[in-house]
Amino acid sequence: MEDLNAILAPGMLVRHPTQAEWGVGQVQSNVGARVTVNFPDAGKVVIDGTRIALVPVFDTGP
């Protein structure tokens, strides 16, 4: 799963695949297999990219 997270860069928007209630988060950093994301309803969360493949969000329109 690390390969899927490799494209994530700071500023990109993502969703956690099993925690939809966290909302759309913004990637803060992506170092190795550790992706730090700031979610509006969960705060700053460090994701283990070897276990979780975050879902990029490209459209946050109405």
Notes on the structure:
By secondary structure, this protein is mostly beta strands. The chain has a single domain (2-57), classed as Roll (SH3 type barrels). It is 6% helix and 40% strand. The longest helix is centred in the N-terminal third of the chain and has 4 residues, at 2-5. The mean pLDDT is 91.
Which strand order do you get reading across the main beta sheet? 4-3-2-1-5
Total tally of structural domains: 1
State the helical fraction: under 10%
The largest pleated sheet is described as: 5 strands, antiparallel
Order of helical and strand elements: HEEEEE
Q: In terms of topology, how is this protein built?
A:
Elements: H1 2-5, E1 13-15, E2 25-31, E3 34-39, E4 43-48, E5 55-57
Antiparallel strand pairs: 1-2, 1-5, 2-3, 3-4
